[in-house]
Specification:
This protein is α+β, with helices and mostly antiparallel strands. The chain has helices at about 1-25, 35-80, 195-205, 225-235, 255-265, 280-295, 305-310, 320-330, 350-365, and strands at about 85-95, 100-105, 110-115, 120-125, 125-130, 135, 145-150, 155-160, 165-175, 175-180. Strands 1, 2, 3, 4, 5, 6, 7, 8, 9 and 10 form a ten-stranded antiparallel sheet that branches.
Length: about 375
């Protein structure tokens, strides 16, 4: 095909040259055409004619190709039964499926079961579990949070055996309903103790997912992450992007947040370093939140320590964090874990989301 195209283009170019030469002044009476005429008249004419001929030829070829592609696509969709009655989800869309309801997906679409029990019934074609890279047998039970992809010439029903939720990407027909204002994370279920907190943090843009579809609630929170959450809670005020600490470069997602927090005495460093990627401890989190509360004008006072004193490991709280932890416990921002304060343990993303929700409900009122 490429060789044929090249031959056609060469012939077109020769045709242009022949036509241009035949009409050139002096071409019949004077075999010596001036260099000026060649450069200023002859060659521009050849180039122009050649360009027009090539554009016409390619334009027609392009149009014919588009027509053939459209015909092929229309025929393909006809084999699938057409698109009437289908909905297109341009990104993962959360749906709830009552027991007995099903969603029909076709080629190019993806199904992720996020809660409940469901099976796949393949009408035709192949369904691939792209989380494991394996072909899915007809009638298989689905595994939570794994991606099931409809391959070429495929139509499949994903049927719920119990009340279920799912994420769908691509063309689908469904007996379920779209979940309005959901937590768009496959690893956060409506029955999880942290569901409300993660939803609040997500809807208010305080947290972002670790991927487009996962939150990783059990992953530990770093110091840089936590300061960034508070920076967003403050409305992301103007802040310097210059490096304040030797381990906080100017190009990181947390740079402005750390700069703002340092300028407002919310965080301090260690020997010129902030250690943004070090996992934050529960008492460090209390200290930073304690200082943020004072900065935001919510106050940082407490009038009793009875709850704090009831924890058997209260003596393990560092002296510098004592007031902050007592304040956090008094205001029910920080509660025990297995009956203990565990001040030097790390805090998970879910725990931080819950603490932020507690803080906002206590001091902001939402």
């Amino acid at each position: 095909m490429k060789r044929l195209t090249a031959v056609v283009l060469v012939l077109l170019l020769l045709l242009c040259i022949t036509a241009a030469y035949a009409t050139a002044p002096g071409s019949t009476g004077d075999p010596l055409i001036s260099l000026s005429h060649i450069n200023n008249t002859f060659l521009p004419a050849v180039r122009g004619d050649a360009k027009n001929l090539v554009n016409d030829a390619l334009g027609k070829s392009y149009g014919d190709t588009l027509k053939k592609l459209q015909e092929a696509y229309d025929g393909y969709m006809l084999r699938l039964g057409g698109m009437e009655g289908y909905t297109f989800a341009s990104a993962f869309t959360p749906l709830s499926l009552p027991a007995g309801a099903s969603s029909k997906l076709i080629t190019g679409s993806t199904f992720v079961l996020t809660s409940g029990v469901a099976t796949v019934l393949i009408e035709k074609g192949t369904v691939i579990n792209i989380s494991t890279g394996t072909e899915v047998p007809n009638g298989s039970s689905l595994t939570l949070n794994q991606r099931y992809f409809c391959a070429e010439d495929t139509a499949a029903l994903f049927a719920a055996a119990s009340m279920s939720t799912c994420l769908i990407d691509g063309y689908y027909q469904s007996g379920g309903t779209v979940i309005v204002n959901p937590v768009l994370f496959s690893d956060v279920k409506t029955g999880d103790w942290f569901y409300t907190a993660v939803r609040y943090a997500s809807e208010n843009n305080l947290f972002k997912g670790t991927t487009p579809t996962t939150f990783e609630p059990k992953t530990a929170m770093t110091r840089g992450m936590f300061v960034t959450v508070l920076y967003r809670l403050a409305g992301e005020p103007a802040a310097s992007t210059a490096a304040i600490f030797s381990d906080v470069p100017s190009s990181q997602y947390y740079t402005a947040a750390v700069s703002w927090a340092n300028a407002n005495n919310i965080v301090t460093g260690y020997d010129g370093k902030f250690q943004p990627n070090v996992l934050i401890t529960r008492e460090q989190m209390a200290v930073i939140l304690y200082r943020y509360s004072a900065y935001a004008g919510y106050g940082a006072a407490y009038t009793g320590t009875s709850v704090f004193d009831s924890f058997p490991d209260k003596g393990s709280v560092s002296p510098y964090a004592s007031d902050a932890v007592k304040w956090a416990v008094f205001n029910r921002l920080l509660s025990g874990a297995d009956g203990r304060l565990q001040p030097n343990n790390t805090a998970s993303r879910a725990e931080v989301a819950q603490i932020i929700l507690n803080f906002c409900q206590k001091f902001i009122g939402n």
